[in-house]
Amino acid sequence: MTFLQTAFYFFAAVMVFAATMVITVRNPVKSALFLVLTFFSAACVWLTLEAEFLAIVLVLVYVGAVMVLFLFVVMMLDINLARLRAGFTGYLPIGGLVAVLMVAELIFILTGDSFSADNLPRPEGHGGSYSNTRQLGSVLYTFYVYPFEIAAIILLVAIIAAIVLTLRKRPDTKYLNPADQVSVRREDRVRLVKMPAERRHSGNWSS
Amino acid sequence: MGKSISNTLQSFFLWELLKGLRLTGRNFFARKITVQFPEERTPKSPRFRGLHALRRYPNGEERCIACKLCEAVCPAAAITIESEERDDGTRRTTRYDIDLFKCIYCGFCEESCPVDSIVETDIGDFHMENQGDNIITKDQLLAIGDKYEKRIAAARAEDAPYR
Amino acid sequence: MEYWVYSIFSGSPDWIRYVALNVFKIGLILTPLLLAVAYLTFAERKVIGYMQMRVGPNRVGPRGWLQPIADALKLLLKEAIIPTNANRFLFLVAPVLTITPALAVWAVVPFSETMVLANIDASLLYVLALTSMGVYGVIIAGWASNSKYAFLGAMRSAAQIVAYEIAMGFALVGVLMAAGSLNLQEIVIAQEGGFHQWYVWPLLPLFLVYFISGVAETNRSPFDVAEGESEIVAGFHVEYSGMTFAVFFMAEYANMILIAALASTLFLGGWQAPLDIDALEAIPGLVWFLLKTCFMAFFFLWFRATFPRYRYDQIMRLGWKVFIPVTLVWIGVIGFATFFTPIGHWFH
User: What is the rounded CA–CA span in Å between residue C348 and residue C206?
Assistant: First the structure.
């Protein structure tokens, strides 16, 4: 077994284990953390395919940003496990049916010709100077420039839509605009007044 | 309008922040005013109220006559005095304990003493190592008084014109 | 050096020699780094002391030089307390998760023309990816402590890091547009030829955004609301003590040095000499790199001695509403200037 194979099997094993834990572990926070581990191992597997750009971007986007927000939400939840499991047996047949269907489909596809070792050989190894990033960039901005830009615009629309959906005026909150506060200068709030000093009375104070 | 533009420009060029940085940057090179405490000390007032002491007359006789004024005036009830008649017919203490944990160093004992016996010295740094050490007895108080008599007397003399 | 390591393992198979050589190199990076972390704490106390007209720690060892050693010993000997209802495993894993990315990033930092542990192709992205992993340690620490202060601190810190990472990423986009490469070593080489070639001049707004975001990402003053002692005691590491606390502490300082090192690599020409004359070129690149890093690290301490803490909504406003637009505009300016104006060469 070469080093690459060892690395692949190691990361693949970690990934499968972590993915299993995601759906079996009770605590949602732990489950989210196992999902992070799954993403990370997937990135490591991609590294063995010389796809270092994609691997790093996977870590950057999914591990670094998406999962952080997931964790954010999950940590706030107070999930009552007993109530969640109340209808478990009732949904079991449907769930089992879906699972069996999916397994059958996967077996059907994966054992077919299109994914066989002959049709999908291992990509050829490149030399040390091969730049995955440059290749990806040159393809993405020439052949696939329209799909790429369209995808970007769809994402932008989604972002704006999400913001619009959650944006609401709340007149009952005493919200202060930090921009206004920051832009306040001393002259706006303080007025220095020049006053002549009063002369002291020569008589005694009690009179 | 022009003012708000100049304000915006100022905040984009981090003008106020730079002014703040300049201030601390200047102080970085300024002369340091730290007093290296155990080696260097700041001057102390003759009225400094620190560790207590019991004084003696120049002939070696202890001053305290067990009038118990200090015990009565002590706001923290830190002083415990027991007394009896000595062979020569004078009244003297047999016990003079001060609980340093109770004491608030107000100096009332010193003020109330008719014979200037109990005084508070200028010793500010002292410590105890064992439980029970916080109560200092008559012997210890007298020993402190004997040891620092010169300093105590000098401080009293210096402060005398203002009393 | 490589020969020396190889000669020790001369009888072993190739991969053992390879691993041994790399472990040796990693040690060569991490040992000075951890020492630098220790002495950065000392420098911080000294510098802040000086700026407040004090002298700082000067009792342990000659002029206080053994202070960090004494601090480390004290923390080692202290008891690591685990709160009763804490999640024991995650509680102990969190500090490790914080320090691992902080140390792993150093693999791609070019110390000189030849000294870089892993000269990988997308090292700038690697840096971004690993620094974004650091937030997990904070979140997990806050959650596993089972304390509301820790949890609030973790929430604040996570939101802050996510917000400023975007601005930081955009600032780095400007750098890679200028250099045309994601490789840190190539970015340094692109700034060859004296200080007027450094990216700090054409990319000045991006440099400021990058460095300020770096301060925010390391949760340093004035952005240290994650541990704002006046509101939430100490934030995500309230419940930590002894060695577990020390690891958080080390990670924070290692990240500070890292941000300083990256700022000098990306904007100040890395290991390049400031002037293109032989006398300065003769000094090894490592010296220049370390000088620039120290210079940038000094700013962290200077900021801490100068600025009061930002309020939380102001931090969020600065990140989302000021920095991101500024970086986006400047990226546009770079692109426009490069292709449509005669001063395009300026930006390369």
Answer: 14
Residues A37 and A54: their CA atoms lie apart, in Å, by 17
Say if the Cβ atoms of B24 and C51 lie within 8 Å. yes
Q: What percent of chain B has pLDDT over 90?
A: 35
CA–CA min distance B21, chain A (Å): 19
Task: From chain B, pick out residues whose CB is under 8 angstroms from the CB of C52.
Answer: 27
**Which of C292, C296, C243, C297 is closest to C272 using CA atoms?**
C292
Residue B38 CB: number of other CB atoms within 10 A? 7
DSSP C343: G
Question: pLDDT tens across C6-61, in order?
Answer: 677 666 777 777 788 888 888 888 899 989 999 999 999 999 999 988 888 888 88
Q: Report the C-alpha gap between B54 and B143 in whole angstroms.
A: 8
Count how many pairs of residues, chain A against chain C, have C-beta atoms within 8 Å: 75
Q: Which of A24-33, A75-84, C111-120, C211-220 has the lowest mean pLDDT?
A: A75-84
| C positions 45-64 inside 8 Å of B (CB) | 47, 50-55
Residue type, position A115, single letter: F
Whether A66 contacts chain C with CB within 8 A: no
Question: Is residue C124 a contact partner of residue C175, using CB atoms and an 8 Å limit?
Answer: yes
ipTM: 0.78
Q: Is C240 helix (H, G, I), strand (E, B) or coil?
A: coil
B11·A185 Cβ contact <8 A: no
Domain residue ranges in chain A = 1-81, 131-168
Q: Does the CB of C88 have a partner CB in chain B at under 8 Å? A: no
* Contacts with C54 from chain B: Cβ below 8 Å: 32-34
Tokens 């053994």, located at residue: C66
> Which residues of chain A make contact with C151, given a CB cutoff of 8 A?
75
Smallest CA-to-CA distance from C143 within A81, A38, A72, A19 is with A72
Q: Are C167 and C251 in contact (CB under 8 A)?
A: no
Class assignment of domain A1-81?
mainly alpha
pLDDT at C84 > cutoff 80? yes
Average pLDDT over residues C159-172: 85
Q: What pTM was computed for the model?
A: 0.81
B6 Cβ under 8 Å from any chain A Cβ: no
CB-CB: which of B14, B24, B31 is closest to C302?
Answer: B24
Q: What is the DSSP pairing of strand B91-99 with strand B52-54?
A: unpaired
Non-local (6+) Cβ contacts of C121 within 8 A are A52, A53, A131, A132, A133, C182, C183
Judging contacts by C-beta atoms under 8 Å, the chain C residues touching residue A184 are: none
Query: Phi/psi at B92 (nearest 5 deg)?
Result: -135, 160
- β B135-136/B79-85 pair status: unpaired
- Bridge partners of B56? B62
Instruction: Report the gap between the CA of C185 and the closest CA in chain A (Å).
Output: 14
Secondary structure class of C30 (helix, strand, coil):
helix
